[in-house]
Specification:
The complex is a heterodimer of chains A (392) and B (585). Chain A has 13 helices and 15 strands. Chain A is an alpha/beta fold and 392 residues long. The longest helix of chain A is centred in the middle third of the chain and has 33 residues. Chain B folds into 4 domains: 62 residues, Alpha-Beta Plaits (2-Layer Sandwich), CATH 3.30.70.20; 133 residues, Fumarate Reductase Iron-sulfur Protein, Chain B, domain 2 (Orthogonal Bundle); 167 residues, 3-Layer(bba) Sandwich (FAD/NAD(P)-binding domain), CATH 3.50.50; 113 residues, FAD/NAD(P)-binding domain (3-Layer(bba) Sandwich), CATH 3.50.50. Chain B has 21 helices and 21 strands. The relative contact order of chain B is 0.17. Classes of the chains: A alpha/beta (392), B alpha/beta (585). Chains A and B meet through helix 8 of A and helix 1 of B.
């Protein structure tokens, strides 16, 4: 049944339908609506789960790690500083191979204190061993959350479902909310491969010496690589049951494109409109939506991007001293592949600044008018008056 | 290789032991070890009879009312009485006062005393086998009855000889019914009799009888109190009535009524009792006190209640003459003129109290219809202490033992530092312990034995400790508020039972305060920190990172194979029932 609900509630509805057993979370804007709705489900009996109140995000992650170690389907959500505070335990969750699902609503880190969207928070957790899936709209957020549980439990790795603050988390859209019976068919009760059992006591995650640590890490890497293949299988099954699908990557009009714009999250929707406008004016432009960021689908990146003339990557994030993070990753993915086109890296929309169709046209024109990137990172939409004011 | 791996089920390589972590004896890391060490609650130490208040409240909070009541009986045969008349020094030192308000300990004690009547609880008293020895007790007041109760439990045959027609002493004849209904007292005394005590009323102990007693008894406890009032020695003294005697007449059921002003000379609890009783009988009472109001020996709440009931107070005046006013015209009813010398403060007396001296020749004359005297009382001549030079005299905090061939113990008001019901009971208990030790181990053992039964640092003694029960394992350290982990407790209002207003009180001798209702009592008991004792909250076990706290049949212990000495248990114990000790290896 279609309902008009906000992006946050698309996620909480999915968690409810996934019959999560344990939720532990600490409120932080713009994530709060997700766990708020879940706490209400727990208190009014529409979800049979244990909601654990904690004093911090560090404890929230610790609690879901404990729950998952006990074999429970566990969920949490966070943003920005909350996610940063979890950092240590994010490593733990993946190395302990726990199928935890977390909704992460991208928010800028302070100072300057800012609650609006910015991808630097989730991308700063790039190396923690979490699968990362970036969603474009409310429907994708709901569907991806359901798939995330399947994927996490299939490869024993935690999954982060990433949403843009406000543009997605607080925007109401008509969303198809499936019924419980259908979801149960897609997502059966968890059957953990290992769990703490008081009847048969044993310990997990003790000391590992240099003699085995590398093999353990190699094992995690293999699972991460496997996650891409499993996600595709899960998507197929999802499509059979629900009649919808969202691919790990989506290539729109890339076959003959001279310039391909690479987007993530809600900017993709804006870019779809820009693509239609530019195509109607005869411009040979393509759109490549990157949903799956970890594991990085290098093969798909090469397949869709290597034959283009130029690539323009839009980053709503910044790795200081290097540039936009998606641009770096795309460059790295392509560099061992022949041929590989020049990659233009654009930083735009930081801290919740709008990325409008005009912004994207400006990026397209810049890419078209320059044979090669003049610099590693091109900042789009900087207010020159402000820059001049503080540089004088 | 990679494809070969992936064709099979996804491999999972994680650290996972095939045994439990129990093989890792983390106890070897330890430099400190925690231990369960129960301590003393400030209320228990301040209680003249050393009641185990934290345990009583813990049991009451759990709804184990009979067990809670029994815990009082272990130390005090009079829960319903003391819940009403004790001046509860326990509440004055309650740690809870630092958070919000002290626990209503006396209301809870009364609640438990009454619950026992209501529920017809039968006491399961621990009574030792008979020693074959008999002790005579002179006076069936609180001290004598307590001595008999504890001696009977220690295996002695006890006969109590009482001059009056009913037992109870001051409880029966001195304390007005609005503070202590007679049926409550009668029921508590019945229970003492059931413990094996024989009470012989209208059987005063006389000079001659003392001689006979030596033939039939092995020891004598004297708790005859101070029954002889001081009287005025001024002109017109014959017009002043004896306050104690007035209370006795009321107690015996005599119907008396008054009108006009009744002056009560004195400032102690008896003066207040007389004044408040007179108020109920139609008089306008006026207390005449030679010192200042703040120096009155009467307990402050009693003074406040008297004021509410319309009792007036004159301070810094002392009577010098009473003159009968004859006439009896309609405007001047028959009565007396009370001539008062004004007094003033001048330095301090030896006790540190403000000393008062006559303020020159200033006098004041007041017209009154009655005069009562309540300026203190002394023991009858027969109960003067024997010459300490001629016999072994062992003075203890609440009694005095003369170790003759037949030991003689003076107790109650004759020997206590504070003249209160609870101190009288404490006196009976101390006397019972002293006599038992004297019979079993001789004179020299008494002091040490009594010292070993102290509750905290004060004089209060515990019969439980004397009998070697688990209470003896507690340390004498008195728990302070700083040692309570107050995070575990939420502020909560103190439960107070409904009380008659002043107007209602004046209509009869009905009891002023009521007993807490069940829910209110439970809520109140739950407020108690249970300072120093294990309330089985289980935080030690829950917090132990090594799961080294073992609970077996409600007893907690620490498995030293795994305790690594982190101290979390002892630090988190909300009520300081644990301790951490450095370990020397």
């Amino acid at each position: 049944m279609k309902k008009v609900i906000e992006g946050s509630h698309a996620v909480s509805e999915a968690a409810r339908l996934a019959r999560v057993q344990v939720i532990a979370a600490y409120p932080i804007t713009p994530q709060t609506h997700i766990v708020e709705a879940l706490s209400e489900h727990c208190s009014n009996g529409t979800l049979n789960a244990r909601f654990i109140n904690v004093e911090s995000e560090h404890s929230a992650m610790a609690a879901v790690i404990g729950a998952a170690s006990g074999g429970a389907r566990a969920f949490t959500a966070s943003s920005s500083h909350g996610l940063a505070y979890m950092h240590e335990l994010l490593h733990w969750a993946s190395a302990a191979r726990l199928p935890i699902v977390m909704a992460e609503v991208n928010r800028a880190l302070g100072p300057g204190w800012n609650i609006w969207t910015d991808q630097t928070d989730s991308l700063a957790q790039r190396d923690t061993g979490w699968i990362q899936l970036y969603c474009e709209d409310g429907q994708e957020a709901l569907d991806t959350t359901l798939q995330a549980f399947r994927l996490a439990e299939a490869v024993n790795l935690p999954v982060m479902v990433v949403l843009d603050a406000f543009y997605l988390s607080h925007t109401f859209e008509p969303i198809e909310v499936p019924d419980q019976e259908t979801v149960d068919r897609f997502l059966p009760a968890p059957s953990p491969r290992f769990q703490l059992d008081t009847a048969d006591p044993s310990a997990f995650n003790q000391l590992v010496t240099p003699a085995a640590y590398m093999e353990m890490r190699y094992n995690t890497q293999l699972a991460m690589e496997e996650a891409q293949r499993r996600l595709i299988q899960i998507e197929k099954e999802f499509e059979t049951i629900f009649g919808r699908s969202h691919a790990p990557v989506e290539a729109v009009a890339c076959e003959d494109a001279e310039i391909i714009m690479v987007t993530t999250g809600t900017v993709t929707s804006t870019c779809r409109q820009v693509l239609a406008d530019l195509r109607s004016r005869g411009e040979k432009v393509g759109l490549f939506k990157l949903k799956l960021f970890r594991p990085l689908p290098t093969d798909l990146i090469c397949r869709h991007l290597s034959s283009a003339g130029k690539i323009a990557v839009i980053d709503r994030n910044i790795s200081f001293g290097a540039g936009g993070i998606f641009a770096q990753e795309i460059r790295a993915g392509l560099c061992n592949h022949e041929p590989h086109p020049p990659v233009f890296g654009f930083v735009a929309g930081l801290g919740g600044r709008d990325i409008t169709p005009d912004t994207l046209v400006e990026i397209y024109n810049h890419t078209k008018n320059n044979p090669a990137p003049s610099e590693e990172t091109i900042w789009i939409g900087l207010n020159q008056e402000t820059v001049e004011a503080w540089s004088n | 290789m990679r494809d070969a791996i992936m064709d099979k089920q996804l491999p999972l390589f994680i650290p996972h032991s095939s045994t439990t972590t129990a093989v890792n004896k983390t106890g070897s890391w330890r430099f400190f070890h925690p231990k369960y060490e129960e301590k003393t609650a400030p209320c228990s130490a301040a209680c003249p009879v050393g009641q185990d208040i934290p345990r009583i409240e813990m049991l009451a909070a759990r709804g184990q009312l009979k067990d809670a009541w029994q815990t009082i009986l272990n130390e005090n045969p009079f829960p319903a009485v003391c819940g009403r008349v004790c001046f509860h020094p326990c509440e004055g030192v309650c740690n809870r006062a630092n958070m919000d308000n002290p626990i209503a300990i006396h209301h809870l004690e009364r609640f438990l005393g009454d619950a026992a009547f209501r529920g017809k609880f039968r006491a399961d008293l621990d009574i030792r086998p008979s020693t074959g020895k008999k002790v005579a007790i002179a006076g069936a007041g609180p001290a004598g009855l307590a001595a008999a109760y504890f001696l009977a439990r220690l295996g002695y045959g006890c006969d109590v000889f009482e001059a009056a027609s009913e037992p109870g002493g001051l409880l029966r004849w001195g304390i007005p019914a609005y503070r202590l209904p007679r049926d409550m007292l009668a029921q508590e005394i019945k229970r003492i009799e059931r413990a094996g005590v024989q009470i012989h009323c209208q059987h005063p102990v006389t000079d001659r009888m003392l001689v006979d007693l030596k033939k039939d008894f092995d020891g004598l406890f004297i708790g005859c109190g101070c029954a002889r009032s001081f009287m005025l020695t001024i002109e017109g003294e014959e017009f002043a009535g004896d306050g104690l005697e007035f209370l006795n007449r009321l107690g015996s059921g005599e119907k008396i009524s008054y009108f006009g002003t009744a002056a009560i000379i004195g400032g102690g609890n008896t003066a207040i009792d007389v004044a408040r009783s007179l108020a109920r009988l139609g008089a306008a009472p006026l207390i005449v006190y030679r010192r200042r109001i703040q120096d009155m020996p009467a307990f402050e709440p009693e003074v406040a209640m008297a004021a509410e009931e319309g009792v007036r107070l004159m301070e810094l005046v002392t009577p010098i003459r009473i003159r009968e006013t004859v006439g009896g015209s309609s405007t001047a009813p028959p009565g007396y003129e009370l001539i008062l010398q004004k007094m003033k403060v001048s330095g301090k007396d030896t006790g540190g109290r403000a000393r008062v001296v006559p303020d020159g020749d200033a006098t004041e004359t007041i017209a009154v219809q009655n005069v009562f005297v309540a300026i203190g009382a002394v023991a009858e001549d027969l109960w003067q202490f024997p010459d300490p030079e001629k016999t072994t005299d062992l003075p203890f905090s609440h009694c005095r033992l003369f170790a003759r061939r037949m030991p003689l113990v003076y107790g109650g008001d004759l020997a206590t530092p504070v003249k209160s019901v609870s101190d009288a009971i404490a006196s009976g208990k101390q006397a019972a312990m002293a006599l038992d030790t004297w019979f079993q181990h001789g004179t020299d053992a008494i002091a040490e034995r009594l010292a070993g039964c102290r509750v905290g640092a004060g004089p209060a003694l515990s019969m439980e400790i004397y009998l070697g029960k688990t209470r003896k394992n507690r340390t004498s350290h008195t728990v302070s508020y700083d040692e309570i982990v107050s995070d575990y407790f939420q502020p909560a209002a103190r439960s107070v039972p409904p009380t008659l207003d002043a107007e209602q009180r004046l209509r009869s001798f009905a009891e002023i305060e009521s007993t807490l209702a069940d829910t209110a009592a439970r809520n109140e008991a739950e407020r108690c920190f249970n300072c120093g004792i294990c309330a089985a909250c289980d935080y030690c076990r829950l917090y132990c990172p090594e799961m080294a706290v073992v609970v077996e049949k409600t007893q907690r212990s620490i498995n030293m194979d795994f305790c690594k000495g982190c101290g979390v248990c002892a630090t988190e114990c909300p009520r300081n029932a644990m301790a951490l000790e450095e370990e020397i290896k």
